[in-house]
Amino acid sequence: MLDLTDRHCRHFHRLLTKRALLYTEMVTTGALLHGDVPRHLRHDEDEAPVALQLGGSDPAELAQCARLGEQWGYTEINLNCGCPSERVQRGAFGASLMQAPHRVAECVAAMCDAVSVPVTVKHRIGIDKIESYDFVRDFVGTVHEAGCHTFIVHARNAWLQGLCPAQNRSIPPLRPQWVYQLKREFPQLCIVLNGGVTTNEEVRMHLDPVDGVMLGRAAYRYPWLLHEWDGAFFGTQPRTLDRDAIERQMVEYMHRQARENGTPWPSIARHMLGLRHGLPAARRWRQVWGDASLRQEAPERVMEWARIGVLPVRQTALAKMPPAAQQL
Questions:
Q1: Which residues are annotated as part of the binding site?
Q2: Rg of the Cα atoms in the chain
Q3: What is the rounded CA–CA span in Å between residue 323 and residue 38?
Q4: What positions does UniProt annotate as the active site of this protein (predicted)?
Q5: What's the pTM value of the predicted model, to 2 decimals?
C-alpha cells in the first residue's frame, strides 16, 4: 500500500468507520532515522486507532523507530515481513526476512523491549517455491517466542524472483486454510487473514475460523465497504454519513490542509475516487475529480461539477474555440 494509505487516505477512511484498525504505508527505518520524521509520522488524532508499519531488519534501528512511533501516538507497531518488491529485497527486509525467522525474532524482541504498545508482524505463508505449511508454522512459532502475539498472514507465497509486486498479489495461489490451521495450532494468538478478500460476505466467512481480516487494495478501491463495518463486525452504531456528506467533509478537509500545510487538494482527492463505485455516473464523477485541468479550481466547485459531470467536457470544447467565441 506504499504511496496509498497516507494520512489523507486514513482521514477519508475514518469517515467511513470509527472502529477498524487502520495502517500506515510501510515506512523504512532509514526514512525515520535519516529523514523527515514529522513528514512520515504526523497524523491527526481522529485517525486513531492506527498502526505504524515499519520496514527494516536491524533490531536496534527498529527499536528506535518503534519508540518514535509510540511517541507520536500510534496504537500498534507492525513489522512488515511480506513485501516482495526488489527495492525492499535490496534492503534485506520485507518478505526476504522470512528466510531468517530468528532474525525476525531478534527484531521483535528489541521492539517489544522498547515500547509498551503491541508489536505485530505481517508476513506471507511462504517464499518462492517453499510450499510447506510447516515453514509458516515454524516461522510463527519462532517469532511468537520473542513476544509477538498478533500475526497478519497474507495467504499467498511471496516470489522474490520472477514476479513483480502486482503479480505477487494475484499469481501465487491463495491458501486460506493454512491461516485457519495456524489459528488451530496457536489458539492463544491473534491470527488475522489477508489476501484476496474483496467483499464483506468474504470477511464474514473468514471471521469464523480466524480473529480478524485485513483488506488492502479492495478497501482502497471500493471504500464504501468500510461503511458497513462498525455495525456488521464491531456491534456498534454504524456511521450515518451518506456519500454526499462524506464528500463535503473531504472538501472541508482539503481547505484545512491547504491552509495549514499548503497541501494541494488533488493529493487528497485521489484517495476518494472509489467513493461512488457502482452508482450511476460514478465513472464521470471520478473523471471530474481526477481532471488535472481543474487543479487551480476551488474543491467545492469541482465537487459541484463532479456531481453533474459536465464541466471537463465544456472546458475542452471552450479551449478549442477562438477567444471571441469563448465569450459568447
A1: 53, 122, 154, 194-196, 216-217
A2: 22
A3: 47
A4: 83 (proton donor)
A5: 0.90
Name the catalytic one among 65, 83, 107, 112. 83
Where in the chain do CATH 1.20.120 domains reside?
243-319
- CATH for 243-319 is 1.20.120
* Architecture of the structural domain at 7-233: Alpha-Beta Barrel (3.20)
Binding-site entries for FMN = 53, 122, 154, 194-196, 216-217
| Nearest CA among 317, 260, 320, 254 for reference residue 289 | 254
Residue 98's pLDDT band (cuts 50, 70, 90): very high
Phi–psi pair at 316, nearest 5 degrees: -60, -40
> Tell me, what's the pLDDT at 86?
66
Q: Pairing mode, if any, of strands 212-214 and 190-194? A: parallel
Active site annotation includes 83? yes
Q: pLDDT tens digits for 176-186? A: 999 999 999 99
Q: What is the mean pLDDT of residues 118-126?
A: 97
Three-state secondary structure readout of 162-215: CCCHHHHCCCCCCCHHHHHHHHHHCCCCEEEEECCCCCHHHHHHHCCCCCEEEC
Residue 90, pLDDT > 80, answer no
Within 13 A of 300's CA, how many CA atoms are on the CB side? 7
* CA dist., res. 266 & res. 203, Å (int): 31
Question: Which residues belong to CATH 3.20.20.70 in the chain?
Answer: 7-233
pLDDT per position as a tens digit, 201-250: 999 999 999 999 999 999 999 999 999 999 999 999 888 889 999 999 99
